[in-house]
Amino acid sequence: MNKIYINGKYFDSESAKISVLDRGFLFSDGIYEVIPKVGPDWVGFDEHLSRMQQSCKELHIDQPEENWSEVAEQLLHDEGYDNDQSCFIYIQVTRGQMPMRNHVYSEITPNRVAWLQPMSVPSKSEVAKGVKAIFQEDLRWGRCDIKSISLLGNIIAKNAAVKAGAEEALLVKGDFVLEGSSCNLFIVRSGTVFTHPLSRQILPGVTRRLLVEVLNEQSIPLVEEPFTQTEVLKADEVWLTSSTKGVIPVTQVDQKKIGDGESGDLWSKVYDEFQKKYLSEV
Ligand code: PDD
Questions:
Q1: Under a CB-based contact definition with an 8 Å cutoff, are residues 259 and 226 in contact?
Q2: Which of 81, 174, 180, 215 is the right S-S partner for 220, CB 3.0 to 4.6 Å?
Q3: Residue partners of 153: CB distance under 8 A and separation at least 6
Q4: Cα of 146 from ligand 1 centre, angstroms
């Protein structure tokens, strides 16, 4: 990425600068969004902006007044992207900077930053190979519904997964498995789909919401209730959802096969329906 948007202006990445007194840098006092563009289509753009508003509201960060779709279009233009090229826009809003480090904040102007990153979109047969996951204790804070830039708990879990030869960590709090370190989690048992209900313990994923819509339209039963590690291991299918990955099957958790160790039929169906509903080029 070469161009960075900061507070109303566009910079080359080498000259893009934010103060060391920025509260995001000092305290992780900020929020972010990752919005995907799959081929020519932005997926869930408005939903991501609504969640950003909600995150700002919860943290009493002033609402940014940017027209984010104009910022996205400008960055696409400046970076020379083709209409069909997939990427995501990363948007970060921090509370802003104060003259000195101080836990107590005052009314200040938020710092707004955005850039594009290229994103590879694998074919269905590639995605169907599935990913491996491991269970990890959820070390995150008590407001995981806010898309805070404070991600150490997620980072520790994700890196433990990669170290174990897996792609994702499924976060366990008490008796229940909540979500992945960077995605939401669904399991399938006898044709019924289960996912953790929205609460302060999980991120209200945009892809989760889009998938729920597909399930409802297809009359596939969905139950939003907590489930255990044992239930994950006994599931017929396990899926992960995120903006950068879409809907992907998990074929192994903690070295144990899920179902027969292959992506499942229901995943294949909802994957197709998801593509049909949200993407113009399938
Ligand atoms: N992560 N849960 C967590 C903890 C996440 O970090 C994410 C997204 C999701 C899925 O949300 P969505 O469908 O809105 O992308 C669930 C992004 C992609 C990231 O941190 O890069």
A1: no
A2: 215
A3: 138, 139, 140, 141
A4: 11
Query: Distance between CA atoms of 4 and 111, rounded to whole angstroms?
Result: 13
Pocket test for ligand 1, best of 28, 145, 147, 182 (most atoms within 8 A of CB): 182
End-to-end CA distance of the chain: 27
CATH 3.20.10.10 occupies which residues in the chain? 124-278
Q: Report residue 201 CA to chain centroid gap.
A: 15
Could you tell me the CA-to-CA distances from 57 to 4, 33, 63, 142 in Å, in that order?
25, 14, 7, 17
Burial classification of residue 23, based on how many CB atoms lie within 10 Å of its CB (0-12 exposed, 13-18 middle, 19 or more buried): buried
Range list for CATH 3.30.470.10 in the chain: 3-118
Q: Give one DSSP letter per residue of 252-267, joined into a string.
A: EETTEESTTSS--HHH
Positions marked catalytic: 147
pLDDT tens by residue, 48-98:
999 999 999 999 999 999 999 999 999 999 999 999 999 999 999 999 999
148-159 average pLDDT score: 98
* Nearest Cα to Cα of residue 206 among 101, 54, 60, 7: 54
Residues with CB under 6 A from ligand 1: 34, 154, 179, 182-184, 203, 205-208, 241-244
Q: Which CATH architecture has domain 3-118?
A: 2-Layer Sandwich (3.30)
**Is residue 33 a contact partner of residue 49, using CB atoms and an 8 Å limit?**
yes
Q: Which CATH class is domain 124-278?
A: alpha beta
Identity of the residue numbered 140: R
